[in-house]
Each structure stands twice: as C-alpha cells, then as structure tokens.
Amino acid sequence: MHKKLAWLISAREHSDFYNCRDQAGLLFQGSRAVQDPAVVDHIKEIFSQDLRTLGLNQRSNLSMFKETMHQWIAQHRSSQLQGLDQYRIDFASGTTQSFDSFYYRHRQRRMRCFVGEYFYHLKTWTSNNTPWSFVTEHDPLVPGDALVVSLPFCDTGTVLPDLDKILDLCDSAGIPVLIDACYYPISGNIFADLAHDCVDTVAFSLSKAFPVANLRIGIRYTKPNIFDGQALHDSINYNNTLGAYIGLELIKKFSCDYIYNTYKDRQQEVCEFFDLEPSNSVLFAIGDQRWKQYNRANLLDAYQLTLDADQFKNRISLVSIFDNWDLFEFVKYETTTKI
Amino acid sequence: MIRMNDQELYRGVAPADFLNEFEQLESDCVLVIEHVDKQPSDTIVNNGIIIRDRSFELDQIIIDGYDLEELKWASEFRAQDSAVYASCLFFGPNGEFVLNFSNPVLPWILKTRHEKNNNDPHWEEDYNYYQQACKILQQISPQ
Hints:
The structure holds 2 protein chains of 2 kinds.
Chain A: H1 2-13, H2 17-26, H3 37-47, H4 51-54, H5 60-74, E1 80-82, E2 88-92, H6 96-105, E3 110-114, H7 119-127, E4 132-135, E5 145-150, H8 163-173, E6 177-180, E7 191-193, E8 199-205, E9 218-222, H9 229-235, H10 241-253, H11 258-274, E10 277-278, E11 284-287, H12 297-302, E12 314-317, H13 319-323, H14 325-338
Parallel strand pairs in A: 1-7, 3-4, 3-5, 5-6, 6-8
Antiparallel strand pairs in A: 2-9, 8-9, 10-11, 11-12
Helix pairs in contact in A: 1-2, 3-10, 5-10
Chain B: E1 2-4, E2 7-10, E3 28-35, E4 44-46, E5 49-52, E6 56-57, E7 62-63, E8 66-67, E9 76-79, E10 84-86, E11 90-91, E12 95-102, H1 105-117, H2 123-140
Antiparallel strand pairs in B: 1-2, 1-3, 3-12, 4-5, 6-11, 7-8, 9-10, 9-12
C-alpha cells in the first residue's frame, strides 16, 4: 500500500514515468517542512508586504527575532529544554552556520557523533580530512573529542537514550558538545537539561517547522565567553534582516508546538495504517525491514558518503503524505472497503 | 513519406520536425519512414568525390512524450535495391526506415531497455504502479 501511495503522490507532481519513479523512490526520505495550508497562506501574506521597507536593512528585526524565538522555544507546551537562559543568543543562518562555527572552534579535536547523525556533519568532516568517528561501545567518548548530537536524534526523531549520562560524561571529560535542536519545533514530549558545562552550542532553525528552509533562519545559543566570527557578526547586526523579519512574522503567528499539535493525530493515523512506529518528531515514523528501501541510502549517495545504510533506522518522512492527505485517505478508504 | 501501420501520416519534403497526433489502437506498430523519388541526377560526383547529394538523417523519435533515445537504433533501413542495413538512421538511397514497437510505448521502452541492459528488473511492477496511479488521479480529478 505504501508503494501505491508513493506512486500516487509522485504521479500527481510528475506526469513523466521516469521522474515519477525517481520521486516515488525518494518520497519517504529527507526532512523538509510540511506545506501546512495556514502557514503557506501566512507566508504568502508576508510576501505581499513591502519587504524592502520591512526587511531590508531593518537591523532591529534581528534582535526582535532572537528575543521572540527564545520565548517561542520556551513556550512549547509538551516539551521543555532547561538551561537555555544561561547562554548568549546569536542569529544564525539555519543551524548550519552554527555547526561550521563549532567545527572550526574545536578543529584540534576529534569530531564524534552517534550512528545515524545528520549526514552534513559526516560530509564536512570527511571532505576536510577532519578526524572523526561514530561513538560506539568499542570507540567511546574520550578527552580530546568534540561531540555533535541532535535533539531529538536525527535517526529516530526521539531523544537519544542516556543523553543526560552522555552530557555528564562530557562534563567530566571536558568534551564540548553541540546540540542540534532543529527538529525541536516539529516534536513533542522532548525533555532535556542543557545546563551542562560541556554544552558549547545549541542550534535551532525554522527550516523543519515552516517551508522557509532556503531563507536560512535560525539562532545559536553559546556560552557567553564565546566570541567567534558568528558572534561578531551578530554583535554588529551584520546578518539576514529579511530572514529575521519573515521568521519573526511566522513565530508570532504559529507557536513552537503548532506543527506537532496540528499533525500528531495524522501521524498516528498513518502509523496505524502502515504499521509504523510514531516518532516524537511528528514528521517522522520508524519502519521495519519492509521499509528498508526508503532508508537514507539514497541520501548517502547524494552526499557522496560511503557508509553502510543498514546501520541506520528506516526513518520514514511523512511530509509528502501530510501534503497529499486526500490521496492517503483514498488509499486507506479503498483498502478498508476491499476488506 | 511517413507511415504508421500502413496509414500515411505525411508525404512531402523531409521536414526538420514532424509532429503528428493520432490514436493508435493496435498493439503491434510499425513506423516506416520512406525516402522516395531520389534520382541518379541528385547525386553529383566529381573526381570520385560526392559534391552534392540528396540525403537526410533521423535524429530523434518521441512517442507519447517518451524519447526513444538509443532505441531508435533498434530499427533497420531497407534500401530499394534490397540491401538491408541494421541500425541505420541515414537516408541516402531510396528505401524504408522500419521501426517495430508496441503500443502503449512506455512498457515497450522499459521492457526493451531491460532486455538490452539487464538493469531494470522491476520495470513491469513499476509500470503497473504508475499506470494505476495515473488512472486513480484521473478518476479523482479528471482534467
């Protein structure tokens, strides 16, 4: 049934067989934002405004965005991240700029992450000959490492087991940690204490919650004593004032848990129908071996990484289903009727 | 002259592009492009070198939006003098370019490519999913 749905969704967008087949094979991968109708309408409304006046060179947008985003994150009704108040906040170009700053600041260290982490890290480390390895039982964290960990975790959309213990270990071993929280605004029931000495950076972005990924809107939390290039640019407001304006307009209208609350019932419905395990990140579910063809193997190819895809979970992106809900209902109805 | 299953679609000077819309109901199809009326005087030879000639070349065949690409070579040219040239897209002498294919063309393309390259074992399953999806979309939102 999932293949039938994948082909249906793809054929709606591509009349050509070959394009359709390519998309059908990739449909349940990736992690783009859902095209939520209310959000899309609001984006259209924002873009109908005089963005030259409102966005270009309006430096106050940056500070307003940072302050509002900080409150926005804190107001999530089913999740909580403790300790963010102790950090300084910089505007960031998505989460990626914060990653790059972290890599550079800790370039003398060995980069570490858990199996299933976001491929951008692996690609950057590999292409720059940066020493790195997955954290495993046989290759644990040691002093001299720097750790990147997504919260919720990239491979599952759920908090990594033993995150607290991992952060305690990093505290005692002096291992700086980057927390990639880009999935936080699409997730629920995420709890973590980030008031750890080891936490160097916490990176947020709007790219997964709202379809504005190309505008690269995010913030970075860092320890107050860190004053790197990214912090410098933030201090002189040399950042994307237009992106900040658009981000500000979005988070003023839609709460941090809007996407989670709007789609959690649909996520449950899809998971029950396809026998998937729901993730805390509402745009994802975890599939068993029947879903292997949709694992991130193709993304590995795109990133030109030679890793064994079988070591990752079959993380299924539900975004295309949410965006084509009528087709999901059709397939579900047809199946139920046949039974 | 261009014929499909003996139905004449075009007669005249070889065009740069030829577009024809017609409904083909038969499953076995034969596309014939015939080069006719070339006279010996159309070929001028000077010191053993052809300095003027009447000829053309087939560049591309698109059926139902699908470019046959390399499959256009799965054809033959039957010259008027009974010589048969496999995979010949050059129309030098009078004669017929003949391409056999099946209708609808997409499964024929997929099957033929797989038979040649052995790289698309799921073509039939994929085609069925595609066809089913197109039908359902047509039912849901007919254009």
